[in-house]
UniProtKB/TrEMBL annotation:
Protein source organism: Halalkalibacterium halodurans (strain ATCC BAA-125 / DSM 18197 / FERM 7344 / JCM 9153 / C-125)
Alphabetical keyword list: Methyltransferase, Transferase
GO biological process: one example: methylation
InterPro entries in UniProt: Diverse_substrate_MTase, Methyltransf_11, SAM-dependent_MTases_sf
GO molecular function: S-adenosylmethionine-dependent methyltransferase activity
PANTHER family found in the cross-reference section: METHYLTRANSF_11 DOMAIN-CONTAINING PROTEIN, METHYLTRANSFERASE TYPE 11 DOMAIN-CONTAINING PROTEIN
Annotated Methyltransferase type domain residues: 13-105
Domain of life: Bacteria
Gene3D superfamilies reported for this sequence: Vaccinia Virus protein VP39
A Pfam family matched in the record: Methyltransf_11
SUPFAM superfamilies membership: S-adenosyl-L-methionine-dependent methyltransferases
Protein name: BH1804 protein
Family stated for the protein in its record: Belongs to the methyltransferase superfamily.
Length: 226
């Protein structure tokens, strides 16, 4: 983020902030304030408890209720694929941004998800074993070109689009498989029955030989300007 941001000053907003991890991280870059926005009141209560000095606001991605033209940055991570339509969110972000403000969107695309499975890109194994999950992902994950075109149609200038690998966690294989069983932080696994989930766990246990793993995900990031 420090590389992508040309001037981390003024006010920023983190839409779909969840527990506020990235809201706090953005604050450390030099913004005067960073406001976290989420549609879930229970999640916001957790965020407020974890980060009591940060401002959090209840609102929808498409209608935040925040002031127009007030923000130098609108940031969203892992939000796009949860929206039925992307355009209303992009219009709201455009309204929030000051002239020359930046929009940064981070999400996984179809291209990111369907990379070959490996001990580092474990998500790829899901689709190896259950190809029907690919159709679910295609419906909610845009391609890089699709989202780029949508951002441009919404009035922005797309300055750069990049992919990068992010370490999700380093843990024991046993801990990882427990998370899979609980479907923790992996919404796609809710599309599997309990029987299918057990089959996936056995498959992953077979594919991953090391007792400690570094789980990584590839993301795409768009940097656009109003």
């Amino acid at each position: 983020m420090s590389i992508l941001l040309d001037s981390p000053t003024g006010h920023a907003v983190d839409i779909g902030c969840g527990g506020g991890i990235y809201t706090r991280a953005l604050t450390s870059l030099g913004f005067d304030t960073v406001t976290g926005v989420d549609s879930s009141l229970p999640i916001l209560e957790v965020a407020k408890q974890l980060h009591p000095t940060l401002p959090f606001h209840h609102g929808q991605a498409e209608a935040t209720g925040l002031a127009s033209g007030h923000y130098s940055l609108v940031y969203c991570r892992a939000l796009i694929h949860h929206l039925n339509e992307v355009e209303p969110f992009l219009s709201e972000a455009f309204r929030l941004l000051e002239n020359d403000g930046q929009l940064i969107v981070q999400d996984r695309t179809s291209e990111d998800c369907f990379l070959q499975g490996s001990p580092s890109h474990i998500r790829g194994y899901y689709y190896n074993l259950f190809p029907h999950l690919q159709e679910i992902e295609r419906k909610r994950r845009p391609t890089i070109q699709m989202l780029s075109s949508t951002i441009i149609r919404s009035g922005y200038e797309v300055e750069r689009v990049e992919t990068f690998w992010e370490t999700r966690q380093t843990s024991s294989k046993q801990h990882f498989l427990q998370e899979i069983r609980a479907r923790t932080g992996r919404s796609i696994l809710h599309a599997l029955s309990d029987h299918e989930l057990n089959k996936l766990i056995a498959y992953l246990d077979q594919q991953i030989q090391d007792e400690f793993i570094e789980e990584t995900d590839r993301w795409t990031i768009w940097v656009a300007r109003k």
